[in-house]
Write a structure and sequence with these properties.
Elements: E1 3-7, E2 10-13, E3 18-25, E4 38-43, E5 49-55, E6 62-64, E7 72-77, E8 82-87, E9 96-103, E10 118-121, E11 125-130
Parallel strand pairs: 2-11
Antiparallel strand pairs: 1-3, 3-8, 4-5, 4-9, 5-6, 7-8, 9-10, 9-11
């Protein structure tokens, strides 16, 4: 059973930084973590799920939402089955539950910002930015 577990959320002051991690388990030997694009999304109270960032399976291609461009860095460690999201200069509007997600298809050529292109999701980690 594929599982994604996020960690690293918490309370941070505006202007501060945070590093989220998401570790994946349960994939097969034929299709390992290194075969899948990974995404980060967030959902604020009363709002829909919003794309934050994605990284390709090979780690050489990244995508960011305009709202976090220049304030976030996504990375992955395929040897640890883990994807990271570092956020800087955080703002109160970054407050949300952050979710990581595993692409529905292995070796997809491009990353996606569409939630339905991801099959497996973590349980989410709360990030709160105080003003």
């Amino acid at each position: 059973q594929v599982q994604l577990v996020e960690s690293g959320g918490g309370l941070v002051e505006a202007g501060g930084s945070l590093r989220l991690a998401c570790t994946t388990s349960g994939l097969t030997s034929a299709r390992t973590f290194s075969h899948y694009n990974m995404g980060w999304f967030r959902q604020a109270p009363g709002k829909g799920r919003e794309f934050v960032s994605a990284i390709a399976w090979h780690g050489s291609s990244e995508d960011y939402a305009d709202s976090v461009q220049g304030r976030a860095t996504i990375s992955r460690d395929n040897s640890e089955n883990t994807v990271y999201l570092e956020m800087y200069a955080m703002k109160p509007e970054d407050t949300a539950v952050y979710y990581c997600a595993l692409d529905s298809f292995a070796l997809r050529a491009t990353t996606s910002s569409i939630p339905t292109d991801y099959t497996y999701w973590g349980q989410g980690t709360q990030v709160t930015v105080s003003s």
